[in-house]
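Convert to structure. Protein one:
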Amino acid sequence: MRKVGIVASLSTVIDARLILNEGEERKVRSEDLVHIHNRNGNEILAVCRTAVGSNENLSVGGFSPGIAYARLGKHPSSAKEYYAFMLDVLGDVNSGTLEQNKTVLAPGSDVELYEDSDNPMSRLGTSGGSVGYYKDHPKWMVPMNANFIPYHIGVFATTGAGKSLLTRHQIVPFLQKGGYDVLIIDWKGSDYAPFANSKFTMADLALDDENVADYLRAAMNDFGYYVSSYIERNPMRSALEEVTLQREWRTQQTPAELRKYIEKEVTKKIAEEHTKQGAADPDYYGKQYIARFKKSLAKVSDKDIANVMGNTEPKAIIEKLRKEHFVAIDVSAGLKEMKLSVFLTIAKYLRQMMQEKQELKIALVIDEGPQYCPFMPRGLESKTSDTISDLCALGRSYKLSIVILSQGMAGDIGINAAVRRNLNTLFIGKIHPLDLEEAKRLLAQGRIDEKSLTMLPEGDFYLTGKMNPSPVPLLIHFDLPEEVD
């Protein structure tokens, strides 16, 4: 370490300003870690945050000789020039490990810069593994507290910032090192499924009975309705749900046979509902519903029908997960509601396991979070949002970790607030400008300029929350492989 400056006035127990020695402004950078020899008797670890350069001769509040020099293209005296950083205190390291600082920082205390060979990460506690390394220092592996894995994880960044790569190359190995088997629901089918130890497709999975009707209804484009009241309440939907819950449809061997069976049974139930006693045929409305249902079913491909004919139960997937430790479910071959139905089938079984008091030690990774739990959920999204919140609440006790990836945090581009508040460890990379306010709230423990979050390079993420060994956010980095996120 080398001395780079001293603590300025108006310091507190949690922050201070660092006045740099002359020439150090060219060497000390934002996010550098420093050591404060507090003149009040203890040793402090801190991080450089926002910076300011000041020269009274160049103040633009009024005319001065310095301004006159500047107008002539000359440089005024630098006698009244200084550079300063705002410091966030990580904690007291008097004992060799990080503890809460309760002693006010004395102005004039010497500040030293940690250089690459010093590695202050050893002061942050025993490592339960790491995700990336401290920014600009590949040898400084940030120790993570694996005890908080079941308190759930959120990964937020815009497209191309490295969310999927961070998850696949850093978070998944960290979870596995912590003893967790990782089950990923791959929305696009290309980010994780090709690299998993084993994978399943939508056509493999035996959907839960109550989700089959939602799947088929979505495949039939809600029978051509666009008004929510007609989508939710109509004889075709009721008849379809009744037929699927009877389970006899599972005896059909081919998509053609299943199509024929569904058409026959659903139209039969619609006819029964709309045929008055003593009449031979359905009434006008019954005939219209039957015609609409047949027309909608005809538009469904055999491939979509085959997706409900899988026979792999969630129990078999979990058994495979126990053996392979990293399993992906490729849900790319289907509409949104179909994908949500797959998630609900898996989620129902996981919830059943927890209700039976089983300790899971499973991490469920949900890619494209806003598709499952958007800011304003509608239709099936409301069910998946409530289910994720329920899994989070139970997971803390039964060691189920929910990991959600999202391009946005809040509002129209983000995830539901009830879900977001269950994520107690966050990785925040480059964000959309619409998320500035939410990022400011989530990173409130640190003096981070939230505008800088819109300019973070690929592979840079602020770590904050339960698994962070520091009480303030830390900027970590991982080296992106030669892939496109």
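Protein two, convert as well:
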Amino acid sequence: MLVVALTGNIASGKSTVARRFAELGATLLDADAAAHAATAPGTPAVAAIAARFGAHLVAPDGTLDRAALGRLVFGDAAARRALEAIVHPAVGAERVRALAAARAAGAAIVVCDIPLVFEARLAPEFARIVLVDAPAAVRQARLERDRGMAPADAAHRIAAQLPAHLKRPRCDLVIENDGDRDALARRTDAAWARLVAWAAAQAPAR
């Protein structure tokens, strides 16, 4: 089983690539979905978040106010690291369980959609890493157009992440998303062909 990390900075088009990989046959593990599961009502992570950041972030039904938590930690690097120290281990445990299930099911290629694979120092866990990238100006325009962000907010979100030029040398494949959807589809399909070849090369002979 080839275990691949798919990463990309905000508005790079990573989610579109992830969906296409799933259509082509990948078993897709979504870190955001795992994070939601890890912070569901009644989980240890929610209790730890309430203890660290305040009980006001948890509704009476146990639901985490994700928007308020995001506003609280977004501009505060220390707070963001504290949150990651709570959430990342729980997400990692969920990923281990999901990978075991995929292996038992006979999956050939598992793609883990992880935005912070480098920031969270997870790169050594993966056989291959694929980065989706687009110029910062293009991503800024997408955030303003598609998510309705104010220019300053979009710029702040982009600046808060590790720059892609520091990630690119550490990746096995880079999918450029500086064109239209058709171009991205072609490049994604070409990347998938490489993944299939790598998976076949590591598969034991029958």
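The CA atoms of residues 144 and 150 lie 6 Å apart. The longest strand covers residues 2-7.
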